[in-house]
Design brief:
Helix 2 packs across helix 5, helix 3 packs parallel to helix 10 and helix 7 crosses helix 8. The chain starts with a helix and ends with a strand. It has a single domain, classed as Vaccinia Virus protein VP39 (Rossmann fold). It is an alpha/beta fold and about 270 residues long. A seven-stranded mixed β-sheet has the order 3-2-1-4-5-7-6, with helices on both faces. It contains ten helices and seven strands. Helix 5 links the parallel strand 2 and strand 3.
Length: about 270
């Protein structure tokens, strides 16, 4: 019972401190005080595993559709946190680099990569306060997963961040976002804005929308993401939710939305 009470307190504390997610110190504290997926994703390990599997599937599809696949491409993971997605990009065959504004997260990511032997690189940088430490046209793909919705306090900051992504992506490259895009108080993170404002911010930054898809069926996410339940229960319930989203696409029912962009000057 005490474990459940502690988890409830942790979840409530996170919601109360949601605006602090735009600060590097919040993530420094979180990385140093937690373990496993809870350092950067959901509290529940089994749900985080299912969530990550689905994210990787959507990212792979986006790479295939927008770039012909990830193999041998230079890919930047913006807001990499503890490096989970960076390592997934590496596993897909990309030459992956991760960047984050949290020193503790970058340090943890580098340690994890070293322990796995993965040839990836991590640097410190803040996408919401550019420039990032990269030259123009450095990457074939710039990816942000669950980053901009917490790093950007408003639409102006979002547009600034997307303009920076456009700067560092190559003319024939792609910008791929997989973000919790919501205007509601219940589901919105630091940035609360509907999907059409995200798309408009990308267009103002010089990007052109190519792909849009939702993931994370909201009722399932709300029910399963905070408390540890056995994988044999979580995985099929999660998959049913994703199948529902595929059959009935709805921004209101999807916790995350994938937006795939090409540069508007791609030709």
């Amino acid at each position: 019972m005490s474990v459940i009470i502690d988890r409830v307190r942790e979840v409530v504390r996170d919601r109360q401190q949601r605006q602090r997610m735009a600060e590097s110190n919040y993530w420094n504290d979180r990385v140093r005080s937690r373990s496993g997926h809870a350092r950067s994703v959901w509290h529940a390990e089994s749900f985080s595993d299912a969530w990550n599997r689905r994210q990787v599937h959507l990212l792979q599809d986006a790479f295939d559709e927008l770039l012909g696949g990830p193999r041998e491409l230079d890919a930047l993971d913006v807001g990499c946190g503890t490096g989970r997605i960076t390592l997934e990009l590496h596993s897909m065959g990309a030459k992956a680099v991760g960047v984050d504004f949290s020193d503790a997260a970058v340090e943890a990511a580098a340690e994890e990569a070293k322990s796995t032997g993965a040839d990836v690189r991590y640097v410190v940088g803040d996408i919401a306060q550019p420039p990032l430490p990269f030259e123009d046209d450095s990457f074939d793909a710039v990816v942000a997963v669950g980053c901009l919705a917490v790093a950007c306090r408003g639409i102006d900051a979002l547009e600034t961040s997307m303009r920076e992504m456009k700067r560092i992506v190559r003319p024939r490259g792609a910008v791929i976002l997989l973000e919790p895009i919501h205007a509601s108080r219940l589901l919105g993170r630091v940035l609360k804005a509907p999907v059409h404002e995200w798309i408009a911010a990308g267009e103002h930054a010089g990007l052109r929308l190519v792909k849009q898809q939702g993931m994370g069926f909201v009722p399932v996410r709300l029910a399963l993401s905070s408390f540890d339940l056995p994988p044999w229960f979580v995985r099929p319930v999660f998959d049913i939710g994703e199948t529902t989203l595929e059959r009935v696409p709805s921004p209101r029912l999807a916790d995350y939305t994938l937006l795939g962009f090409h540069r508007a000057d791609r030709g």
